[in-house]
Amino acid sequence: MARQTDDTTVVAGSGGVVLGEARTNHEGRKALLLVRGAEDTTELRDLARTMGITIVETVVQTGREDPRTYLGKGRLEDITDERRSTLPGHPWEGVDLAIIHTNATPRQLVGVNQTLGLEVWDRVRLLLALFTSHASSVEARTQVRIAQLQSDRTILRELAQQQTTGERAGFGGGGVTALQGVLNNLNRELTNLRRRQRKQANAQREHRRQRTRSGAKTVGFVGYTNAGKSSLFRCLSGKSVLVEDQLFSTLETTVGRMEKSPRILLADTIGFIDNIPNATLTAFKATIAEAIDADLTLILLDASDSPAEVVRKLKTTKREILERQAGGDEPLEGKRPAVVLTKIDKISEHQISAIEGLVREEGFSKPVALSSVSGKGITGLQSFIREQLFGAAVTVRIPAPTSQNVEASERVAADVYARGMVEDDVRSDNGEIVMQVWVAKACQAQLKARWGERIDIK
Ligand SMILES: Nc1nc2c(ncn2[C@@H]2O[C@H](COP(=O)(O)OP(=O)(O)OP(=O)(O)O)[C@@H](O)[C@H]2O)c(=O)[nH]1
Ligand SMILES: [Mg+2]
Question: pTM of the predicted model, to two decimals?
Fold first, then answer.
């Protein structure tokens, strides 16, 4: 999708709400942040910083949002005047972007763009730009592009609407027909991308099915962006994935085996963020599915967030999982997600217990608390995962074979491997086998029924 065609990159009208496959690197850009009322802008600033964009000034206007221009026409005109009169060295010099703090309507995006003559983003367009610059796999690029085209389409429709009602002059001189042409191209690309995404999702589902058939179990990591999912994944799998102190470093799902437990697969995936419109979120559903439809879903919470924030994120994540399970085609048969508290090296024991209490109040069992940096709690989590998936560990003893059944021991051992997860396998000279195995109660019963005297499970 590095391809850049004239028909997808569209600068709408003068100044331009830039649509389509525009630049992917925004490092070094300067922006004005437009805020209505007393809103907390921390998250948006973090997102901008992640992309290397400097917010040179925050323009705040009290009162209610203007449906057409967000800040109000007067205020926008003041900004334009100030921009025109900036002298060299002024902080506004080189500003080529205005960011609306919240999710704006297409009408507001077009309105602000027309008055300021600057490229305009709202929160969603900022997220999409960030996703675009972080997307490295075909899967991630496909979903990001779908989300972006959907968002562009709403703006094109707004422009078409304004033309029809005479609010706006022709589009790039070509009028309604040119605009329709652009919309048609966009729709065609969307159809192709959706087909591709369906294929990818089917292939992914087939992979999952094969893994299940081979007896492997999957653990999915779900949580907000920056919760520490990739760090934990790296800790448990030894596989290197991108870990960064920035939002949305991970955009696709990586599956790896848990170290020393080859039959346990871990799925690291994209994180959540608040207030993403459904249309945008839908594009990422296939990716998150891997983690949510897992045999065991772990909700990761950054324990160094404030307690109120931890609870809020837990509630949202839980709701997302339940919604997804209800709407999914593979119901989870009563599998309950478990909670993991991350980054406990950053807080005190006292704070950890307080957060554990809050998690339990939300109806979860005691969370596993750990740090991927200090390593504390990691073995605890490994045991927890094995126990959840395979039941408690048992000692399986296969007595030395008698002269009548020389091969039998190997057959029994192979069956144990097939049903459970063998951690330790000691073979004595006389042919006796003793293994440590994580195996579900039902499978233990099957083993006993099948092999009788030839197996001993404790
Ligand atoms: N102190 C401390 N920092 C951690 C720990 N785990 C992760 N971090 C840091 O938190 C930041 C985010 O970690 P990631 O593992 O990339 O988080 P993520 O959930 O995969 O984030 P996205 O992929 O962006 O959604 C990084 O700077 C990590 O170094 C931990 O246990 N302790
Ligand atoms: Mg990650």
Answer: 0.79
Say which range, 253-262, 335-344, 377-386, 411-420, has the weakest mean pLDDT. 253-262
Q: Is the minimum distance from the CB of 408 to ligand 1 under 6 angstroms?
A: no
Q: What pLDDT is stored for residue 323 in this prediction? A: 78
Q: Which of 222, 224, 231 to mutate to test the pocket of ligand 1 (most atoms within 8 A of CB)?
A: 231
Closest residue to atom 4 of ligand 1, CA basis: 343
H, E, C per residue of 247-298: CCCCCCCEEEEECCEEEEEEEECCCECCCCCHHHHHCCHHHHHHHHCCCEEE
Indicate if ligand 1 lies below 6 Å from the C-beta of 343.
Answer: yes
Domain boundaries, the chain: 10-192, 215-389, 393-457
Fold of the domain built from segment(s) 215-389: Rossmann fold (3.40.50)
Residues 65-90 pLDDT 10s: 999 999 999 999 999 999 888 888 88
Q: Are 12 and 171 in contact (CB under 8 A)?
A: yes
The CATH H-level superfamily of 10-192 is GTPase HflX, N-terminal domain (3.40.50.11060)
Domains 215-389 and 393-457 share a fold: no
CATH topology of domain 393-457: Alpha-Beta Plaits (3.30.70)
Q: By the 8 A CB rule, do 422 and 433 touch?
A: no
Query: Number of C-alpha atoms within 13 angstroms, CB side, residue 353?
Result: 2
Tell me, what DSSP letter sits at residue 455?
A: -
Tokens at residue 207, please? 């992979």
407 confidence band (pLDDT: 50, 70, 90): low
